[in-house]
Design brief:
alpha/beta, 2,3-Dihydroxybiphenyl 1,2-Dioxygenase, domain 1, 4-stranded mixed beta sheet, globular
Length: about 130
């Protein structure tokens, strides 16, 4: 048996704002953006992937909040913890590029036994690690 984590859903306030940030500011690839009508009404399937991850890499499914409960979860899906980890092959390069694009880091980069890391937030309040593994 072979299994892999394909995607994780991330609740966002607006599809287009999330696409603008992840694909515009961060330079991710818009892998799929499919509008459809289901028995539950209109639905949009939006899948994004970090550059260089290819079809076999993990991706994010952007899910626009459709209820007050879902809207309340935006930025709090991981209970205030870092819940998303963006792995890079060059921490210094990507950290500098992200800062130049206005990404706010919560801390200075630090060395940990597993690699170089710094915590940042997306515009929706989700906490991420930028991470280069040893």
């Amino acid at each position: 048996m072979q299994q892999a984590l394909y995607a994780i859903s991330l609740i966002v306030p607006d599809y287009d704002a999330a696409i603008a940030f992840y694909c515009g500011t961060l330079g991710w690839d818009l892998a799929e953006d499919i509008a459809q009508t289901t028995e539950h009404g209109p639905k949009r399937w939006v899948r994004i992937v970090p550059p260089g991850s290819g079809e076999a890499g993990s991706s994010l499914i952007l899910a626009q909040a459709r209820s007050p409960r879902q809207a309340a979860a935006i930025g709090a899906q991981f209970g205030g913890r870092v819940g998303l980890f963006l792995k890079t092959d060059n921490f210094e390069r990507d950290h500098a590029a992200m800062r130049a694009k206005g990404i706010q880091f919560e801390e200075d980069p630090r060395h940990e036994p597993y690699g170089m890391v710094a915590v940042w937030q997306d515009p929706f309040g989700n906490r991420w690690d930028l991470l280069e593994l040893r």
